[in-house]
Design brief:
It comes from Sphingomonas turrisvirgatae. With about 350 residues, this protein is of the alpha+beta class. It has 14 helices and 13 strands. Bound molecules: guanosine-5'-triphosphate and zinc ion. Guanosine-5'-triphosphate binds next to strand 10, helix 8, helix 9, helix 10 and helix 11.
């Protein structure tokens, strides 16, 4: 029942319908700003008193917080509903793409967060729904879901292998595709098994979905070349696994990644763009990858990556990463700065 309620809540957010989240005795009703409009807001909040929930990263950009704890840019911050904070003003609070074009009409004031666990859970649900993490909030409401329900929605424990088939691909004709899914999430993750187990730990690549790089050949990142080079490297190694994880935009979804790109067009780097949107710098959870490898019977691996956080994330799921194998591709003029930011700000190894 609760699984159904979370799926319905994600759907409701996308459609601009309010949801409710319970934190102990407190219940918050929430209307996502991105999918609301002035009429829905008037119906949700007839007294025009509902404060606005945003994340700490966004609040810091708006100078509503003095300090940004780098570890928690996605923590909840509540903004008092000043009389001048009408619907359009709230949209400007929610969407950093408008910052340069529309100077904000403050002053705004942060107030203590009511029901912080429910508020954090709401921001998480916005990410799952691929929306901006910003809501109008009021107390009370029916059919509330709980933060634990949302944890269960994201839990990879119920991941299963659904089907598998031979799939010759460019660079690895001897390959098999294995498809995974959970009952909760619409994301269908894929493993490409290249070659055959030979008693040695497989060479593994975790590839997070990048529609722009993988499909359109975007030069802004290194994803497309990394994907193809990984297939070749695994084939050359004799045996291994490519996991294609549906974690577009480091877990914030395609639309939010493209918003981050729009901010990059304004001069912000990939780290600051995520923070300004109100998301963690990397919102991925490698639990899915760990579970996929275990279902494939591979819990001792060599990992192709430059990202020590990926190694740590996978180790935390109980997979033994016996070696990190660097996975560098030559830069191009469009992704040079992106790669330098990864090196300088997110600990990627040279
Ligand atoms: N939010 C956001 N996501 C991005 C951006 N550029 C690329 N991505 C996403 O980043 C992910 C690719 O990262 P990966 O190549 O898996 O990994 P990594 O963490 O850089 O580590 P490596 O294993 O060393 O490549 C994909 O989901 C891309 O869609 C960006 O500017 N903003
Ligand atoms: Zn990419």
């Amino acid at each position: 029942m609760s699984a159904r309620a979370v799926a319905q809540a994600v759907d409701a957010l996308r459609r601009g319908w309010p949801i409710a989240i319970r934190d102990g005795a407190d219940v918050l009703s929430l209307l996502a700003i991105e999918t609301a409009d002035a009429a829905r807001l008037a119906e949700f909040d007839p007294d025009a008193a509902a404060p606005v929930l945003i994340s700490a990263g966004r609040a810091f950009t708006l100078k509503l917080a003095n300090q940004l704890d780098a570890a928690t840019p996605d923590a909840p911050v509540l903004v008092e509903r000043a009389p001048w904070l009408e619907f359009d003003g709230a949209v400007a609070l929610a969407d950093p793409q408008l910052d340069l074009a529309t100077p904000l009409k403050g002053p705004f004031r942060a107030v203590p967060v009511i029901a912080p666990d429910a508020a954090s859970a709401a921001l998480r649900l916005a990410r799952i729904a691929g929306l901006l993490p910003a809501f109008f909030v009021r107390c009370g409401g029916a059919d509330a879901i709980t933060p634990a329900d949302i944890d269960a929605h994201e839990d990879p424990a119920r991941l299963r292998i659904v089907t598998r088939a031979r799939l010759p691909v460019a660079g690895a004709e001897d390959a098999e595709i294995v498809a995974f899914r959970t009952p909760e999430s619409p994301d269908e993750h894929i493993a490409l098994l290249i070659g055959h187990p030979n008693g040695q730990p497989p060479l593994v690549r975790l590839h997070s979905e990048c529609l722009t790089g993988d499909v359109l050949g975007s030069l802004k990142c290194d994803c497309g070349p990394q994907l193809h080079a990984a297939i070749h490297a695994i084939a050359d190694a004799g045996w291994g696994v490519l996991l294609y994880l549906r974690q577009e935009g480091r877990g914030i979804g395609l639309i939010n990644k493209l918003r981050a790109y729009a901010l990059q067009d304004q001069g912000f780097d990939t780290v600051d763009a995520n923070t300004r949107l109100g998301f963690a710098i990397d919102a991925r959870d490698f639990g899915v990858a760990g579970q996929m490898l275990k279902l494939l019977g591979q819990d001792r691996i060599r990992l192709l990556t430059n990202n020590p956080a990926k190694v740590a994330g996978l180790q935390a799921t109980g997979v033994d990463v016996i070696e990190r194998v660097p996975h560098h591709l030559p830069p191009n003029p469009h992704n040079e700065r992106y790669l330098a930011t990864k090196r300088d700000r997110t600990g990627h190894q040279l």
